[in-house]
Structure formats: structure tokens, C-alpha cells
Design brief:
The chain is an alpha/beta fold. The protein folds into 2 domains: 139 residues, Leucine Dehydrogenase, chain A, domain 1 (Rossmann fold, 3-Layer(aba) Sandwich); 135 residues, Rossmann fold. It has 12 helices and 11 strands. The protein has a 6-stranded parallel sheet with strand order 8-7-6-9-10-11, with helices on both faces. A 5-stranded mixed sheet has the order 2-1-3-4-5, with helices on both faces. It is globular, with a radius of gyration of 19 Å. The two termini are 30 Å apart. NADPH dihydro-nicotinamide-adenine-dinucleotide phosphate (NDP) binds next to α7 and α11.
Length: 284
């Protein structure tokens, strides 16, 4: 029987998730149908669409902008949250809590939320051959994407973390909130600064800002260097990566993170492990 999945967002037409998951279905021999689902930008519409999907037998849903926080609230009040979703304050993967279903709870009340974005990033960096164990890492940006990657990076064994942002208060607020949510994060004593003041030598610098959408460039300090620069954005020219390439660093965009988070969602839903390297090659 065909298993049904959706990615819900607004806008959604650009999403590459259906191609990625359709490939996973072919790789694993599962009969799946994965579709884009547009939704008006309000919580009531999101809840109505998701309830109808799972009530109708849907197996799993990915959640993208602007609904990740709404999905978090929805799951917190119903079927629960994974540790990564709790700390991220955001959900990108919806599934049903089987223990609740077994007790007779209806699907709409059994919605469970996970967040695979951060682990998708960690897996991609490791796939590229970089060890995070003992690494000195800087993240530029303090929005939802940065929030979601901090715990997985710490779990992967990084030594030091600095979060730089255009608006310093957002970086300090983020560290404060994350430290309350997780003792592993509190123990790490994350440093913060304004982006232009981020300087020194790092193993890895991750651009988690949305600046690539604007055509502007980040004000990077001349005394800032790294071995490996990673931009979470993909599918366009990225001045952040060009800047560090010119300084001799290796670089990567975030397309592999997208495939990585998708693979983890697929695994949560179906129990099938994806050969991400093979899938990435096929999707090139
Ligand atoms: P948010 O809107 O939550 O945060 C945006 C961040 O970018 C803030 O830190 C903001 O700084 C900063 N920023 C925006 N414009 C500028 C600018 N002109 N100059 C300097 N800083 C700027 O976005 P998200 O965190 O959700 O997403 C960030 C990026 O990560 C996006 O590009 C998204 O596509 C990408 N992403 C990629 C994924 C993947 O799978 N590859 C998964 C998830 C996200 P300030 O606080 O000062 O406003």
C-alpha cells in the first residue's frame, strides 16, 4: 500500500523535498507518495491541514518556513517532542506517537515532533571528512537555524563554540535560552559577539544567517580564519564561501544538510536507513 508524506510550508513550490524523498523511496523499495502542501500562513490553517492529513492515513510530514514554531507548539500540547525539537524550539518532522495511538488516542491528538536539521548538518560535515571532536566552531547567525544546530554540534564533541550575530542581543538571548533548556549547552559556556568582531582561528565557521537571500555580504573581520567554511544556504552563489575560499579554506554549501535532515526524517517514519552518500550522488 502506498505510504503518504507531505512537506508543508508557505511558500512551498520551490521545495526539493519531494525529489529527495521519492529517491529515498526508490532506494529502499518502498511505495511512497511525497507531495508539497501549501498552507495559509496562520496557526489555525496549519493545524487544520495537518489534522486532515494524519486523519486520512498520512504517515509523516516535514515542516518548513514559517510553520516550524507552530508545529512545535502543536506537538508540545499533543503527542510530545524529541529532545532535539525541545531544545530547538522548532519541529521539522511530524509523525504519530504510536504508544498514544495504541491507547486509542486519535491521530490528531497523537502528533509527535522531532527536529532533524541540526543532526543533518552534523552528518554532512562528518561525511565531508571533518571531525567535530575537539573542534573550535563559530556560528554566524542567531535565528531558528542556529538554534537547531547547537545541541547536535555539542553532542558531536566540539570543544569551543562562539555565536556571532548582527544583533548581539539575539545571540546572547539565544545562548541564555539554550543554556536553560540543556545542561550540555550550559556546560559549554558559549561565547557571543557581533559578527564584525568575530576574529581568530577556527576549525569550522558556519554561516547560519539568511543574508544569502538579500545579495548583501557579511562584514567579516580580516583577522578571521578557518580550515572549513560551511554555508547553510544552497542553490546560489555564496559570497561567504568565496571569501574563505580566497583565504585557502575548504568550503561547502548546505545542500548536503538538506539531504541529511531528509534522510533522518525518512528513517524516523519508515525505519529504513538511507545511504546518504549514494543518494547525494544521484541527486547531483
Ligand atoms: P531566521 O530568520 O530565523 O534568522 C536569520 C538570521 O540571519 C539572523 O541571525 C539574522 O540576524 C541574520 N541576518 C539576516 N539578514 C542579515 C543581514 N543582511 N546581515 C546580517 N545578518 C543577517 O532564519 P533561519 O535561522 O531559519 O535560516 C537561516 C538560513 O539557514 C536560511 O538561509 C535558511 O535557508 C538556512 N537553512 C538551511 C537548511 C538546510 O537544510 N540547508 C535548514 C534550515 C535553514 P539578526 O538577528 O541581526 O536579524
Amino acid at each position: 500500500m502506498t505510504q503518504h508524506f507531505i512537506v508543508i510550508g508557505n511558500p512551498i513550490a520551490h521545495s526539493k523535498s519531494p525529489e529527495i524523498h521519492t529517491l529515498f523511496g526508490a532506494q529502499t523499495g518502498l511505495d511512497i507518495c511525497y507531495q508539497r502542501q501549501y498552507c495559509p500562513d496562520d496557526a489555525a490553517s496549519f493545524t487544520a491541514v495537518i489534522e486532515a492529513f494524519f486523519h486520512g492515513g498520512g504517515i509523516g510530514a516535514n515542516v518548513t518556513v514559517p510553520f516550524k514554531q507552530i508545529a512545535y507548539e502543536c506537538c508540545a500540547a499533543r503527542g510530545g517532542l524529541s529532545e532535539h525539537a525541545k531544545v530547538a524550539g522548532a519541529v521539522n518532522t511530524l509523525l504519530l506517537n504510536k504508544a498514544l495511538l495504541a491507547k486509542g488516542v486519535p491521530p490528531a491528538e497523537a502528533l509527535y515532533g522531532d527536529n532533524t536539521d541540526g543532526q543533518g548538518l552534523v552528518n554532512h560535515i562528518q561525511r565531508l571528512g571533518w571531525s567535530l571532536q575537539g573542534a573550535r566552531v563559530a556560528i554566524i547567525g542567531a535565528g531558528g537555524a542556529a538554534r537547531g544546530v547547537v545541541l547536535p554540534l555539542i553532542e558531536a564533541g566540539i570543544e569551543q563554540l562562539t555565536i556571532a550575530n548582527r544583533t548581539l542581543s539575539k545571540a546572547t538571548d539565544l545562548v541564555h535560552e539554550l543554556s536553560i533548556a540543556s545542561t550540555a549547552i550550559a556546560d559549554k559556556q558559549i561565547k557571543t559577539c557581533v559578527t564584525a568582531e568575530l576574529s581568530g582561528e577556527f576549525d569550522i565557521i558556519i554561516n547560519a544567517t539568511s543574508i544569502g537571500l538579500s545579495g548583501e555580504t557579511l562584514p567579516l573581520n580580516n583577522a578571521l580564519n578557518c580550515h572549513f567554511a560551511y554555508d547553510m544556504m544552497y542553490g546560489r552563489e555564496l559570497p561567504f564561501l568565496q571569501h574563505f575560499e580566497a583565504r585557502g579554506a575548504q568550503t561547502s554549501d548546505g545542500y548536503g544538510m538538506l539531504i541529511g535532515q531528509a534522510a533522518l526524517s525518512f528513517e524516523r517514519w519508515t525505519g529504513h536507513i538511507i545511504d546518504v552518500a549514494k543518494a547525494s550522488e544521484a541527486l547531483k
